[in-house]
Amino acid sequence: MSKPVCILWMNEADVYERALVDAGLAHRFHLSKVRADASLPPDVAARCEVLLGWRPAPGMFASMPRLRWVQSVTAGMDQWLAAPGLRDDIVLTCARGSHRVQMPENILAALFFLTKPFLQCALDQREHRWTRRISEPLAGKTLGILGLGAIGQEVARKATALEMTVIGTKRAPAAIPHVSKVYRPADTDEVLAASDFVLLLLPYTADTENYIDARRLRAMRPTGFLLNFARGALVVDADLVDAVRSKTIAGAVLDVFRKEPLPADHPYWSTEGIVVLPHIGGLHPARDEGVAEVFVKNARRYLAGEPLETVVDRARGY
Question: How far is Cα 33 from Cα 42, in angstroms, rounded to an integer?
Answer without folding.
Answer: 14
